[in-house]
## 1
Amino acid sequence: MTPELLAKLAAPFPDDAVGSRPEITCQPCKVGGCTAHKWAECVECGRTLTTAHVHLDYVGHAYVRERLNSVDPDWAWEPMALTPEGLPLLQDGCLWIRLTVGGKTVLGVGDAPGKRGGVFWKELIGDAIRNAAMTMGVALDMWKREPVAADPVEPEPGQDGQAQPEPAPGDEPAQVDVPDEPAELRERIRDITKRRGRTAAQTAADFTKWSKGRQLLRANTALLAEYLDHLRQDGKR
């Protein structure tokens, strides 16, 4: 494996090759009965799920195979072990493989929870190849990003039964054109794009393209406000 091949394997993927999937970060939410978070429609992925989730970037199996083909047309994979019938041997529902690219062989493991039949095997193999290819640098930058879990829902003013402090005399709320909180900004962005017939997933993709790689859910207040203004100006044309 030469440095040139490694650089080609680790090259960034184009925006249209990168997907995003939600992942719940709260264990009680996964099993049910959590009282710290609420369930709502996510403005980024359009799914209804707990607010204690993050969105993880990933590259699909086809794009990973395409990258391997372009770097080494002779790349190959094989299962670590076979059953007496000659089929790949599974361990606890997982498939261990050897992936060889450019003369270098690494191990990988894949699983496909909740899948059955042919779909199970396709996703299993694809996941194992992606996992092994990541060891060689393919989409490694996506795995390096640390996701931040959603914060618990804060109680509404007065919900805890305590009196809320009165504003000081003469204090007037600041008059602003856009809200300060990113969540409210995203909601306004979603309202506009929804009226224009765009789904939540399309809105997230549009934002990523406009911002040159940033994610809607992780963008800061300033960038969201700029995009909101962009949508309003675009609607006037």
## 2
Amino acid sequence: MSDLSVAPGSAGLDDPAVRAVLNRLYAQAERGDKGAMRRAYDSAAKLAAPPTPAEASSLCADALLPVDPHTGRLLYTLVRMLRPGLVVEFGTSFGTSTVQIAAGLRENGRGRLVTTELDASKVRKARENLAESGLDDLVDVREGDALELLRGFGEPVDLVLLDGWKELYLPVLDVLEPALAPGAVIVSDNLSMLPPEYLERIRDRARGYVSLDLPLGDGIELTTWTGAS
């Protein structure tokens, strides 16, 4: 994995504390995620039925599952471009993408991030990584069911990252859609794994979405919300 640094001492992703946390997390994922996921798949195969989101979260507790570094840079760039007031992330894991988003918010001098994670151990690690990077004051890490935790925002949502359990992308979108600001951007990670009904929804101009796929990592879908017709 290549080093993410560009100019030591600069802001954003090049802040020394941010750079150190990201480099450590990507190196840790490169060393351990394949083994952790192999164990998770082996355990899932022994279950009588496909794992629930809670079961899958527990099985993958040791896997960082970070966004691809290029996707992380895209998220940071989108934050700098859009200057969002509120960003929502579904699927915190160890906080790699959370750090990348928050670094952009700090450089903008405005905005906050609300992120959700089902696994308690990952919530603790994400909070530790945010504190180590000096970004914890910009992020509200919520532990539990995203379908409950992401309801009732009193302000528009400007940017969304969906990077959790894939079968929940559409239900999470249903929860967030009433709060989406016109022109809000949605980044859906792991394109190859996304349910067809979710892709049909976010590619439907008649439903208020304009979307395209990008070859970053194993694929992402980049979507703009134009508003319901």
## 3
Amino acid sequence: MNKVILDEERLRFLYLEKGLSMKEIADQLSISIGTVFNRCKQYGIETREHSEVFTFKGKKHTAKVCRIISKTHKGKVLSDDTRKKISDAHFRGGIGHKKKRSDGYIAVYMPEHPKSTKEGYIMEHDLIMECSIGRWLAENEVVHHKNEQRDDNRLQNLELMTASDHMSYHSRKRNQEKRKKA
């Protein structure tokens, strides 16, 4: 791998005379932006203001203009109608709307469910099991995924267990895997 040398003369030419951004210099020389920044500090080259361009209401604005626009709108009192319009614009789905959580489980929007979160979601595998057995799950009951794929909520892949049985199952499985590795 060829190491690119970024000497002071070259950096001054590209950054100050040609007016390239640190990103453009880094891309051109196949080095990191951090390296360009560090060399600027090392050689005493004063860095420019961040000048990214943002699109706001269809028009392109610099970061400075965006900060000015933001300040003018902060603290404004909105009517209930305007708040409702903003809320409706951001809301996706409705009753029964599904989302995949970061831990891999599927959550369903059902705010009226007794075990729903404060956001109104309940785990899909819990709902499927409750429909199958015809009652709410008890406090000590959990739904286990047989194939251990958290988003596979087919009824044949789900098993109703007590919380202690579920913990024992996974504890035994971890111990078996440790023995296999040893």
## 4
Amino acid sequence: MNNENQLPSLISLPYISYIDDQGDLPENVQGKIGVYAIFNEDKILQFIGYSRDIYLSLRQHLVRQPQKCYWVKIHTIERPNRTILENIEQTWIAENGGLPVGNGEQKATWTQPIDVKTVMTPEEQENYQNPVHDEVKQMNILKNIARRVEAEIIAALELRGLKTQIRFNPKLKENGLLDVK
């Protein structure tokens, strides 16, 4: 699984359930360096990434794209080496026949914190844009919207059987952003 001299083909790696029978993410990759490919429920490639801690990255992707993270393929390496990681990523993209949607036009939704301003209800938008509100009121409105979106994400993940605790960075909420702590 981790011969650094040989670039593994994506097809040769086993599918690993994103959320196992106990409701956990693949804990055996905590603190591990490597490349991973994320697939949807139909095992269609959605995103390829690499990380110094695959587990943390998988957690972040699950929160950002819960409906697209069902299967993962992983290749670990012993020491950080960006060249090796990028070569594996490029090999997998070529093997796929092109850029997965999550590495292309949707990359920000996979790699950046969730901006709750993009999912405001019409009532929330009207309330947020009310000229009577000062910055503090707007910050509180964003925080409340972030809490609503956070609750929706956690509820969706619990329906999928996730038992792993997900904590969001509270400081980002006042800016209308959600990201795993």
